[in-house]
Amino acid sequence: MARTRFLRQSPKDGAEDELRSSNMPVPVRSIEQEAEEEFTLARARATKFLQTADASVLDRSASFTNRADDKTGLTKSDAEIGAQAAFLSNHPAGSLLTVIAFSSDATVVLPLCDVNSRKMEIISALYRMPPPSGGTFLAKALPLAGEQLQRAPSGMKRRCFVLTDGLPSDYPLPAAQALKADDVELVVLGFGVRSTRTIDEDLLREIASIGPGGRPLYYHFTEARGLTAFMAQSSRILE
Description:
alpha/beta; Rossmann fold; 2 domains; 6-stranded mixed β-sheet; 8 helices; 6 strands; about 20% strand
């Protein structure tokens, strides 16, 4: 026969006293349910996410006026901004972000700042970026990202996310190597149609840092939803 458990006396709950005085058992969660709940809470308390200083280096070349390669009707520019908004969603307290835009030139759209306290300001800055036009001069943008990330506190993990859909108009490898030599993790995201005529994936892989397992941190997305999901997940990493 299954045993019925009783609640312990609670000085703040008179309802239990009434049930006890009537000799009626007070049904509660099973021992197994309580144990599972305690385990879940303990795991959540033990989980710590790493504060990061991140640079988003965003392609604003003329091709970003084109439709993204999905059925949403979004332009590549729309998808780019949406993915960045998702990137803001889960950063742990104390994390930092800077935004760099590049086309024929490069500019600091937003200097390095605290993500959570200035989230709406960051989103506003994304929508104020220069409209897509011109070429894809990535080499001009990477040093700007490096300068901003140097302002991060010593010891904070620093990452640079490069989003581009095409062939660089310059040769960005030396600038990328300088960033990596300064201990910045370089994550490169290709976006759009996968064709050797439109994107130099070999170069983008070479630009990227090497991740676990010896593989470059280069990822390609043909749809906005995949890019957005990746950026949302990338905003939070375990210590």
